[in-house]
Amino acid sequence: MNCRGPAIWSLCLAVCVVVPARAHAAERLPITAASPENGSIEARQGALAFKLSTIDGLLYPWIDVASQGSVGAEGELESGFTVERVGLEESREHPGTYSGTALYPLNMQGWSFTPGTYYWQLRGAVASRDELRLHEALGPVYTLVIVPLETGAPQGEPAFATPESPPSPSLTPAESYPRVKALIKEKTGHSAHHLSDRCLPRSQVQVACATRWLSAWPTSSRTFRYSGSFVLEAQPGSVQISFFGRRERQGCRGKRCAASVRWVHTGP
């Protein structure tokens, strides 16, 4: 199973990230850079982006966000206070740099809309060199303070005060579904069979969709299985669509059976 797409982490964390019983203490991950920084104050009302640098090759990386800073015996944030688990992806251009975005809550009642102090921690797994097993790896616990967004236009952004001002771009999940299907057909030359997609808004102009589909049905040895994440962003007069995912040949086993897929498309 491909567990590197952040939008399918709920399934992956339940199936893929099964860390064996600890025969050793959890390994400590050195953090050389982090955004948001430890102790930072964010005036936000929406999805929050995380980016940090540590060792490269971390397996199944994610961030736990908690409402309290209580930790367990190994220094991990206690799961009883978890408010979100954010999946991360490692940069191909900059190994050791990981990024991910918290979900944008549909009811606008999520933690990123609620002022308070939150605690977050990088987690993942590392492969043992002398044993055929994975060991849990933990970063330090950082704090993040969410404060109310001030009334009025954010600094550096124009306030559209006059009726003559052009409307700002916007995008909804309902508008995103047909664009995803059309881009799949354009890029692969076939319609998506058994398409499973779950689109959630990240902001007024951005929608993220977790997807998987088959290139043909019924399947054969020539069928490909796709999985990954679409990110759609409304721009003045156009929509930019990015896809980051994986393609695997049905029934094939081996390193050459799978490949990474990346598409970037801009259109009306």
Structure description:
The protein has 268 residues and is mostly beta strands. Helices cover 9% and strands 42% of the residues. It is built from 2 helices and 15 strands. The strands form 3 sheets. Strands 1, 3, 5, 6, 9 and 10 form a 6-stranded mixed β-sheet that branches. Residues 1-22 and 151-162 have low confidence and may be disordered.
Beta content? 35-45%
- Average pLDDT, rounded to a whole number, is 80
* Residue runs with pLDDT of under 50 for 5 or more positions: 1-22, 151-162
Largest sheet report: 6 strands, mixed
CATH class of the largest domain: Mainly Beta
As for the CATH topology of the largest domain, it is Immunoglobulin-like
Instruction: State Rg.
Output: 20 Å
The CATH architecture of the largest domain can be given as Sandwich
Strand segment count: 15
- So what's the oligomer here? single chain
- Our count of domains comes out at 2
Distance between the termini: 34 Å
Write a brief structural summary.
With 268 residues, the protein is mainly beta.
